[in-house]
Protein: Polysaccharide deacetylase
Amino acid sequence: MVAKAVLQNVLARGITTFGIDVASRRLLWRDRVAVLLYHDPKPETLDEHLTHLKTLCDVIPLSEVASEGNGRPRAAITFDDGVAGNADLLPVFVKHKVRPTIFLCSQFVGRPAVHWWLLPAAKKAGIERLKRLSNRERLAELEQYHVDNYLEEDATGLSAKQLEEMRPFVDFQAHTRFHPILTRCDEQECEQEISVCKAEIESMLGIECEHFAYPNGNYGDREVRFVKAAGYKTARTCDLGWNDSRSDPFRLKTIVIDDDATLPWFAAQLTGIPVFLRYVRHARNLSGYSPQF
Structure:
């Protein structure tokens, strides 16, 4: 961990020293929209990030991602999974007057349930290995550990009370029911995870669910087809890049932000370079597309 922090600091210093951050804003970001992806940052970290971000760009809701710009860079703030810790961020959202989008797994919020990758059994079995199994194989392996009985205090998702308190300040949208890797699902599993999630969120919160995020960034033509058929207006990937009115609304690009990023590392991540290098290492291509399996 120390070596990783040192490498991050060196790369961050290099990016700012040579003006790469400024150049990326002028050449790549311009008046386009950077959709930032978080999961479970601490309030003090997000507060620091947003304070810096608002000196660089306008912060807009995800629903305005295709709107015409005014010449300034723009950013939309998104969170995946709907973990309980997101409730602690509400004062930060209010302070900075930003309206983020939180993509919910509809069967892990508002009830005593645990996101499957947060289970001790999943960690022991190897989360990355489980992701690569077919959905049926993954579920069968997890069932061996009897992981389907939880108490309220075990829940890892936002509670019904938290969802209600946050609803005036947050756009809650869809991230499947149980967060499987969609490309490892069969046709029926994939379609139901996408369409039923929409219906469940709308029923739970009394809102219109229009936006979707592909779990783990894994998707293909089949998943895009199901998202369109379900009636969503956009879908966010984990592919690296910026968006404008010409972007494919069902393949919105993003910039993944580390939840614990220091301010210099956050500034470096906004250039897209750290994510690009990570994808090159794992996917071994220069496309900027997130690794697929």
